[in-house]
Amino acid sequence: MKKGNAMKARQIAILGGGLIGRSWSYMFAQSGHRVRICDEASESIVSARNWLAGELSSEDTARVQFCSSLEDAVSGADYVQECVSELIDVKRAIFREAVSLAPASCIFASSTSALLPDAIFSDIAHSDRCLVAHPANPPHVLPIVELVPGRSTSERTMDEVEELMLSLGQDVVRLKRASPGFVLNRLQAALVEEALSLVEAGIADPDDIDRTVRSGLGMRWAFVGPFETMDLNSKGGFEMYTRTLGPALAASAPGGPETSKWNGGAPARVATARRQLLKVSDIPARQSWLIQKLKLLRALKNGVETAGEEQHER
Amino acid sequence: MKKGNAMKARQIAILGGGLIGRSWSYMFAQSGHRVRICDEASESIVSARNWLAGELSSEDTARVQFCSSLEDAVSGADYVQECVSELIDVKRAIFREAVSLAPASCIFASSTSALLPDAIFSDIAHSDRCLVAHPANPPHVLPIVELVPGRSTSERTMDEVEELMLSLGQDVVRLKRASPGFVLNRLQAALVEEALSLVEAGIADPDDIDRTVRSGLGMRWAFVGPFETMDLNSKGGFEMYTRTLGPALAASAPGGPETSKWNGGAPARVATARRQLLKVSDIPARQSWLIQKLKLLRALKNGVETAGEEQHER
Which pLDDT score is estimated for A5? Predict the structure, then answer.
């Protein structure tokens, strides 16, 4: 995760004071931006205010305002982050109104995980300044955000939102185009589909799946992604990994070797990308680095798992 | 990960002094067992000896012996962990000889990730005492081991090896039956196949995939597996998650809704298994626990990532 990059403080409107809205507010305020949270429900405002008062310093809290009117929220705003319910009509209506009330230069982002940007923004006047900025849940502890452009989202909008997200300390994934599930949820869904298949076939119990991930795959993936994992697992890096294990992986792919992407053009692209990030001669040093970090995580988890098991035993 | 459970010290034979063999040796010696590492190549012995001297206390080191003869290694052994190359004929030959030389009660395990137990042990006399015990790489930092039975592996053998692995502090996944890729590599392969698909479709670059996992999915999965993640993401747990999101997940499954396991019997089994581990009313407390742990991991990574980026920049 990148440390928050310094940038000029912005005026941020958060639409919706639920769990996602307050988590975004926390990040923006903590990074020096001014925040107005808008929610029509006064209980949500009270609840968000209490939560933020407990999480933020008094200095950061002073940068957060609360309001019940959309007009107040977006007045003078540089950036709007929408966090209302996942109903297409609700989102379309709120953006239509927000665009009519906000300054001409304002950027509009939806937190949606399920809706595509073109579905939300199709009838918005300034859709070049609209996009999806999808966080993980909860945003303030998982430092990732997917920026998903619609057909008319401008490169300049993507650049500006990327800079803003980096100022929050978020790692930014910038999709080339929208696609259902974006990246994070598609990767998750693929693994879970296979996990369900193992349960259905009677090969492993549900808790065996969870254990395999949390004591194995997930620990490694907390530091290096799946492509880097394979890059580090071969002396010659990803290219050699593909040559050695690609045919077997293609043969055992869920859809069979005909449709396996191990037989397509992607592995070569991954190999090229990896070599731009790490020389083959630096692989052993990176492996040693990973081992050290896994030892630290294991020590952290040894305390953690005890607490977790107590939790489970209640 | 479970803390190492106390058990009577055993005599362990490690066949092969490479990276996996020495890592197993480290775990067994550190947990109080006596270890004999066997390798015909004297360079391997020297290299393993040096590595272990650097990693183990002198008290633990004193429990490790080195030899070049299989007979010396398995003489008096309670347990044999084979870590030679992934060639079926080499493994079959070494097990045939080891079984003829070891005590009648000895248990024989292969570290293989690619070969099925019945392929390795089909012509072994005591195949009820044979199995695959597959670690992650490297075993001593990733606390997971998959126990994979062959057709004739006895329950008693599985029980004894599970107890032995728990004494090392390893988390144990006990497969009901063998299947190519076991559990860990099948889950990994499913996610990577989807990752390659996203690269091939031009939706995301390879490093975007890695970033999504290491700053998002992987951090969560380092503490809770994929089923628990979904269980915690719905007020009503996995059962409600399935009802709310199952149809959409099935519709967007790689093979389409007809073959999606979201439409099969597995989700109900997962829901039942989750409720045996955690009450619905305890979900909020477990969510809070996870958030605290993610904050600790994020702090750990903030140091880590800096080191990692330096590495990448060299």
Answer: 81
